[in-house]
Write a structure and sequence with these properties.
Helix content: under 10%
CATH class of the largest domain: Alpha Beta
Family: Belongs to the FKBP-type PPIase family.
Order of helices and strands: EEEHEEEEEEH
Keywords: Chaperone, Cytoplasm, Isomerase, Rotamase
CATH architecture of the largest domain: Roll
Catalytic activity: [protein]-peptidylproline (omega=180) = [protein]-peptidylproline (omega=0)
Number of domains: 2
Number of helices: 2
Function: Also involved in hydrogenase metallocenter assembly, probably by participating in the nickel insertion step. This function in hydrogenase biosynthesis requires chaperone activity and the presence of the metal-binding domain, but not PPIase activity.
Shape: elongated
Structural class: mainly beta
Protein name: Peptidyl-prolyl cis-trans isomerase
Distance between the termini: 19 Å
């Protein structure tokens, strides 16, 4: 069966950055399963998997626009150090939960720390990066009506 909308696809992958450093992998774990055509994985990878079938192996290069987007400078924000009361030490790379404009919880990463302020970044950690996927498709099947109506694999 070829991968198309409303198929459940399971695949193994290794994700590397432009320097060849491994960022994520399914090695030693179950394959990743998603419902094709329902935004379960990044668009650039999903598009390349369309039409493939179980047993196929491929390498996919995903540009930022088809991955986690470009870096949005509006998501970089200087926050007064006092906003981190109760946190003894703040270091670049630390992650905190923040409340977005609509009240939703958002993860931010500390980029810089000065005596007066902390620069936090609300962009996805992989925003702005070219992503290299090594993929091996494990299985493809038709989704159940329930999976389609819920928009994800059960």
């Amino acid at each position: 069966m070829k991968i198309a909308n409303n198929c459940v696809v399971s695949f193994h992958y290794t994700l590397t950055d432009e320097d060849g450093q491994t960022l994520d992998s399914s090695e030693g774990r179950d394959p990743l399963a998603y419902l094709h055509g329902h935004n379960g994985i990044i668009p650039g990878l999903e598009n390349e998997l369309t039409g493939k079938e179980a047993g196929d192996a491929l390498q996919v290069v995903v540009q930022p626009a088809d991955g986690y987007g470009e870096i949005n400078p509006q998501l970089l924000q200087q926050v007064p150090r006092e906003a981190f009361q109760g946190v003894e030490s703040i270091e670049p790379g630390m992650q905190f939960q923040a409340q977005g404009e609509g009240g939703q919880v958002q993860m931010v990463v500390v980029r810089e720390v000065t005596d007066e302020a902390v620069l936090v970044d609300g962009n996805h950690p992989l925003a702005g990066q070219v992503l290299n996927f090594d993929v091996k498709i494990d299985s493809v099947r038709e989704a159940s009506e329930e999976e389609i109506s819920h928009g994800h694999v059960h």
